[in-house]
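dumping this here so i dont lose it
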C-alpha cells in the first residue's frame, strides 16, 4: 500500500516552517528533574500536514506546546517561522503565539459568547480590521465550516462536532501560517471526527498553512502528508509508522 508520508507535497517551497535540532526538555527542578524529550530532530516544510502520534506520555503535547511558544524551550534549537525559540524572551514567545492557530481536544470556546463572537476572538491580532470587517470574516468562515445558520448560537446549544468546527474556524480565521492541533478529534464520534479533520485539511490547502497535529486516532492518519512517531520522549523513524498505518 502507499503510505501517507509518500504523498506528493502540494507546496513546491522547501522552506522549513519548523526546524528542530537536538532538542531536549526537562520538567521539574533538582532531584525531581525529569527529562521528557530526548535529542529531537525534525524539519517541517511550508504547507505540510504532519501528524505526530505515539503512546500516551510519550511527549507529544510537550512538543506541540514548545513549538507553539506556550512553554519555553530549554536546550537545543527550535526554530519556528524563522524565529529561534530556545532561550527566547517572554515577549518573543507572546509574538510567536499570536502567529499560530491552536485547536485543542476540548474546544475551549467561551460559553458567554456566540459562535461568531468566539471566532472573532481569533482576529484579535488583526487590529487594523474594523469591527464590521471582523464580523464579516467570522461569518464567512463559519459558512465555510458549514455553520452559516448557527452563527448566533451559544456553545451550549451546539453539538460536540459543531463546537469543534467553531474552534477550527477560530483557529483559521486569521489565516495563520501554522496551525497546531492537540487531539482535535478525541472528544468526537467517528463521523464528526472525520468531518473535522477533512475540514482542517481543506482549509489548510486553501490558505496554504502548515499543520502539526497530535493524535492517536488511527482513523484520521490518512490526512497527513507525513506521520512521525514518538515513544518515550524520542522521535522514531517513519519505518515504525508503516506498521501503524496498515
Ligand atoms: P503525551 O502528550 O504524548 O501524552 P506529554 O507531552 O503530555 O505526553 O508528557 C510527556 C511526559 O512529560 C510524561 O512523562 C508527563 O508525565 C511529563 N509531563 C508533561 N507535562 C508535565 C508537567 N507540566 N510537569 C511535569 N511533568 C510533565
Ligand atoms: Mg498529550
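and the seq i came up w/
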Amino acid at each position: 500500500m502507499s503510505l501517507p508520508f509518500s504523498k506528493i507535497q502540494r507546496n513546491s517551497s522547501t522552506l522549513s516552517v519548523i526546524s528542530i535540532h537536538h532538542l531536549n526538555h526537562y520538567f521539574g527542578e533538582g532531584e525531581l528533574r525529569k527529562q521528557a524529550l530526548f535529542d529531537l530532530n525534525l524539519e517541517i516544510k511550508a504547507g505540510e500536514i504532519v501528524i505526530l502520534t505515539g503512546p500516551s506520555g510519550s511527549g507529544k503535547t510537550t512538543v506541540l506546546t514548545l513549538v507553539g511558544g506556550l512553554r519555553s524551550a530549554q536546550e537545543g534549537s527550535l526554530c519556528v517561522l524563522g524565529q529561534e525559540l530556545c532561550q527566547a524572551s517572554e515577549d518573543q514567545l507572546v509574538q510567536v503565539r499570536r502567529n499560530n492557530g491552536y485547536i485543542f481536544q476540548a474546544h475551549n470556546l467561551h460559553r458567554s459568547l456566540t459562535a461568531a463572537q468566539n471566532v472573532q476572538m481569533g482576529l484579535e491580532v488583526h487590529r487594523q480590521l474594523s469591527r464590521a470587517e471582523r464580523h464579516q470574516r467570522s461569518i464567512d468562515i463559519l459558512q465555510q465550516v458549514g455553520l452559516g445558520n448557527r452563527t448566533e448560537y451559544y456553545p451550549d446549544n451546539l453539538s460536540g462536532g459543531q463546537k469543534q468546527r467553531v474552534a477550527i474556524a477560530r483557529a483559521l480565521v486569521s489565516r495563520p501560517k501554522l496551525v497546531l492541533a492537540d487531539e482535535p478529534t478525541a472528544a468526537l464520534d467517528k463521523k464528526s471526527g472525520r468531518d473535522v479533520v477533512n475540514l482542517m485539511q481543506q482549509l489548510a490547502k486553501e490558505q496554504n498553512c502548515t499543520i502539526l497535529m497530535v493524535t492517536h486516532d488511527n482513523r484520521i492518519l490518512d490526512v497527513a502528508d507525513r506521520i512521525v512517531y514518538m515513544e518515550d520522549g524520542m522521535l522514531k523513524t517513519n519505518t515504525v509508522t508503516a506498521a501503524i498505518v496498515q
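Residues 16-99+178-184+209-246 form a domain with the Rossmann fold fold (CATH 3.40.50.300).
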